[in-house]
Amino acid sequence: MQTALEPFRKAHAARNAWGVARLLSPIASPDNPARLYNFYRATNEHLVENDVRHSLRYNKSNKFSNNEFNAWTDIFVSYWRAVGHILVVEEAQNRGRLEDRQLVDRYEAWRELANNFVKYFAQDLPSWATVAMYTTAGHLRTFAIRADQQLVALGTSNAYTLSLQENMVPTAPENQKLEEAARIFHSLFAACLRDRNFDPDDTRKWGVYYMANLQFKTFFRLRNINLSKNIIRSIDAQSDLPPFDDYPKAHRVTYKYYLGVIAIFQEDYSTADECLTEAWDGCLLSALKHQELILTYLIPCRLVTKHRVPSQDLLDSFPNLKHMYGPLLSCIKRGDISGFDRALTAGEADFVRRKVYLTLERGRDIAQRNLLRKVFLAAGFDDLKEGQTEADRIRKTRIPLAHFAAALKMNAGGEGRIQHLDDDEVECMVANMIYKGLMKGYISREHAMVVLNKKGAFPGTGV
Asked: Of 293, 326, 294, which Cα lies nearest the Cα of 309?
């Protein structure tokens, strides 16, 4: 055990946070694939606690207080036991014979490690152990999900098969082990948030956003998204956190992503646009999966806030998004209202699962705006007056309501209620467009005419 813990002693002496976190990882690094096996074989169940204590106490490079000594002893003893279950699972998977409860046992052993961080993190461990704490918590979530899957297969849980989609709502109404893990995450989050050390080089508050993000991911999977609001309120109430821009970019981008998604669910689209745009701007160009997740919500959000659709080049870079949103966005660009309705119905299952159906439904107004814009463009230009040149041409701004009615009926192609619109309904649709700011002008009922603004009849479209 002396040899097995030597890397820890060096990392601790150097206050190397990531070095300690890597030593407490359940995954062996490529340059040392036998690390877990060697660590586990360094002792046995009967001697592990004494061996760890002896290795940590009798060395010249580290000065531990009694409390810190006891904390690291319990952490490494629980880690050693967890490694035993990890190796059992790896060997079973290599043989293709994963037995009952092996994934559950692995989760429960790792949970004990996480509970030791809950026990000691706030008072007895140095603040730079924050990295080891939150990486341990991240692995606990993974192990909890796999344990719940095994319980489902064994028929010992009320949960159903979990979705593979990591960022959004799965089909399971209950996840026993993940709910247990969520309580541990909250305890660790609270420990970070309540830390009263204001020295930015020696505070546990650097773990706040990582633990917040981990809870968001967990609540989304548990279909308890409303609990995320408590996390946001807790952070907003803090006045002594380090500056947000000083946190690791990965923490900031993920936090802004979840803030944006939660804002969309609350129909606060301006906040959602702001947060998702910040997440997009901060996301690495190589992180295509993360960019795709952000765009999944930024695209519907921009439809509502700025009445804009993404470029074809952007969609071509993300085939999944192109498949999901492409037909709908094409109909919006063409002003094809009937096609929009069909595309919305065809993609309903995906849109509902991602909770963007109602947001996308508002895109119908943009499709309708684009159709009415085509009528305006088709009307052409007023005749030139004496002394005017081609540069002085202006578009006709008095459009009969009957022209808009004809366009709407032609677009319906003989399908649906829109084919039977009467004049009052057409007038109401145009009035709604004006009210929502998608058209500028007024309706002259006396002349059954729509009089449009000469300078920007359809704001944001160039005419």
From this structure: 326
Q: What 3-state class would DSSP assign to 199?
A: coil
DSSP character at residue 306: T
Report d(CA 137, CA 74) in Å as an integer.
16
- Region 419-439: mean pLDDT is 86
Phi, psi of 141 (to 5 degrees): -60, -45
- In the chain, % helix, strand, coil (3-state, to 5) comes to 65, 5, 30
- State the fold for domain 392-452: Arc Repressor Mutant, subunit A (1.10.10)
Contact between 430 and 372 under an 8 Å Cβ cutoff? The reply is yes
Q: Write the pLDDT tens digit of every residue in 266-279.
A: 999 999 999 999 99
Q: Are strands 449-452 and 441-444 parallel, antiparallel or unpaired?
A: antiparallel
What is the pLDDT, as a whole number, of residue 420? 66
Q: Radius of gyration over alpha carbons of the chain, in Å?
A: 30
What is the side-by-side order of every strand in the sheet holding 441-444?
398-400, 449-452, 441-444
The pTM for the full model equals 0.87
Asked if residues 337 and 429 have their Cβ atoms less than 8 Å apart, the reply is no
* Contact by Cβ (8 Å): 295, 277: no
* Local structure of 313: helix, strand or coil: helix
Could you write out the DSSP letters of every residue in 176-195?
Answer: HHHHHHHHHHHHHHHHHHT-
